[in-house]
TrEMBL record:
This is glucose-6-phosphate 1-epimerase. It comes from Capsella rubella. Its EC number is 5.1.3.15. GO terms for molecular function: carbohydrate binding; glucose-6-phosphate 1-epimerase activity. The lineage of its organism: Eukaryota, Viridiplantae, Streptophyta, Embryophyta, Tracheophyta. Keywords: Isomerase.
Length: 317
């Protein structure tokens, strides 16, 4: 494990463990008892707990977590595509690959001064990937846990190809909630969205907030940097911040579709909601040597404050 110097400099905050398949996982902790767990399979965050030990991310009880299958839950890295189109696997291949610890990570950003533990991962294309998608890239992922328990994911994708390439991207984020009928999403009012259940028909959000009574799969385009998920029953609000990612995808499979998914329980739609920071409506194009950065910041607040009262400045926006 000598190549893991990035991690061992923070022994008190970071630990490497192995899962039941023998694949490395990185466990991050902060001084107040919050934690996050990241698997090198897919670079996937598979757990995020607050200082009380409460799990904030949803994972299906039927999830399969054995390569090359990605686990149903947590935060999946969807690259170089989101969705199911073309020759690539659904949501791309990044979530199915084994990542490595990054030996030459980028320096800490000035706004990462509150970070107590983090890990840097790296993905490069294999020969198999080239057959599906003939582009050379370096994908660097930093996952960090702050003193206040905030979870941040920063993706840096560099084109080391001799020609431009385009991709779509999403942080496929499964939030744990009390009951889908009891939550609302604020911050997407009046926006245009693509209804993925109706052949991507372009519609406009009419409600004061998004609530749930049936299956939903929408891509809100040119969405704001911050949205909130209010869980009234748990008196918890998730604040989802993003940079470099113009779209927000809101998804819940509801009852009928849940029964068609082998790695998802029939009634589990009630206890999860996906709100994904994404770039899908307009793919990102990188010229040779160019680099793209996409950032996700997750905060869980034990309250039911109004979205308007959120102090965005405190989150660096």
């Amino acid at each position: 494990m000598g190549h893991c110097a990035t991690v061992w400099d923070q022994k008190e905050a970071t630990e490497i463990i192995k899962d039941w398949n023998g694949i490395d996982q990185v466990l991050l902790r902060n001084p107040h008892g919050a934690s996050a767990k990241i698997s090198l399979h897919g670079g996937q965050v598979i757990s995020w707990r607050n200082e009380l030990g409460e799990e904030l991310l949803f994972t299906s009880n039927k999830a399969i977590f054995k390569p090359p299958k990605s686990m149903r839950g947590g935060i999946q890295i969807c690259y170089p595509q989101f969705g199911d189109c073309g020759l690539l696997d659904q949501h791309g291949f990044a979530r199915n690959k084994i990542w490595v610890i990054d030996e030459n990570p980028p320096p800490l950003h000035s706004n990462e001064s509150t970070v107590k533990s983090f890990v840097d991962l790296l993905l490069k294309p294999s020969e198999e990937d080239f057959k599906q998608w003939p582009h050379s890239f370096e994908f660097r992922l930093r996952v960090s846990l702050a003193v206040d328990g905030d979870l941040t994911l920063v993706s840096r994708i560099r084109n080391i190809n001799g020609k431009p390439f385009s991709f779509s991207f999403a942080y496929h984020t499964y939030l744990s909630i009390s009951d889908i009928s009891e939550v609302r999403v604020e911050g997407l009012e009046t926006l245009d969205y693509l209804d993925n259940l109706s052949k991507q028909e372009l519609l406009t959000e009419q409600g004061d907030a998004i609530t749930f009574e049936s299956e939903m799969d929408r891509t809100y385009i040119r969405s704001p940097k911050v949205v909130a998920v209010l869980d009234h029953e748990r008196k918890r609000t998730y604040v989802i911040g993003k940079e470099g990612l113009p779209d927000t995808i809101v998804w819940n499979p509801w009852e009928k579709k849940s029964k068609t998914m082998s790695d998802f329980g029939d009634d589990e739609y009630k206890s999860m909601l996906c709100v994904n920071a994404a770039a899908v409506e307009r793919p990102i194009t990188l010229k040779p040597g160019e680099e793209w950065t996409g950032r996700l910041i997750l905060t869980a607040v034990k309250s039911s404050f109004c979205f308007d009262q959120l102090e965005l400045q405190s989150k660096g926006f």
